[in-house]
Amino acid sequence: MFKISNLNCHYGVIQALKNVSFEIEKSGIYAVIGANGAGKSSLINVIAGLIPATSGEITFNGTTITDLQPNQVIKEGISICPEGRKVFKSVSVHENLLSGAYTMKDKAGIKENLDMVYEMFPRLFERKKQLSGTLSGGEQQMLAVGRALMSSPKFLLLDEPSMGLAPKLIDFVFETVEHIYKTRNIPIIIVEQNSEMALSIADYAYVLEVGEITLQGTGKALLDSDEIQKKYLGA
Which residues of the chain does CATH 3.40.50.300 include? Predict the structure, then answer.
């Protein structure tokens, strides 16, 4: 289904990813955890086509997507909710959501997705005519997730969805991730610094350290690992 082989990425002379390889063969929630600067967001951005890989290969459903542009990656069925939300602040909530469906031609499908997002996030429906820049941080995160779902993705990438949110909203974000998986049954890669929450919902997880995968296993196994407890969970 999804495979990364010997993926490398550089920012000038700095190597952000070092021969990263893993394979996802079935639907599930997959967490990528690690410290600041470990390469987590670089990994997500290379997959999404937002930054180029130096070398290596990414395939999805048998198609090589390594060198595709972001709009082409979306057409292949991979959608991203980016770090920092990056909503279009000067347009309405409704227009932001429609922008997520720009690769779709099926008007009925777009309406169905809109209805699904508004049902998932009633707050967005209440504020659909409001300028997105006037929303709270939590509401903007709902909007960013909803926008990512508008293209009917077959694979969803979530980059630091809990960043900068209050504890109650963090719980809501992770409940939403679980709800999306349970209702849509699509693979989800979630990159998070909130390691404990990410591992608690993950079927499988990877630990990135200075651009390399150093540990992997089920979310529960890593959550119970003494090494993970000491490095990432403050034990």
Answer: 2-77+153-232
Name the β-bridge partners of 215. 207
Whole-angstrom Cα distance, residue 85 to residue 156? 15
Helix/strand/coil percentages in the chain, nearest 5: 40, 25, 35
pTM score: 0.94
Q: Using one digit for the tens of pLDDT, what is the confidence trace for 77-97?
A: 999 999 888 999 999 999 999
Residue 23: predicted pLDDT: 97
The domain covering 2-77+153-232 belongs, at the CATH homologous superfamily level, to: P-loop containing nucleotide triphosphate hydrolases (3.40.50.300)
Backbone torsion region of residue 164, taken as left when φ is above 0, otherwise alpha when ψ lies between -120 and 50, otherwise beta: left
Q: Which residues contact 137 (CB under 8 A, 6 or more apart)?
A: 85, 164, 165, 169
Report the distance separating Cα 65 and Cα 7, nearest Å.
Answer: 12
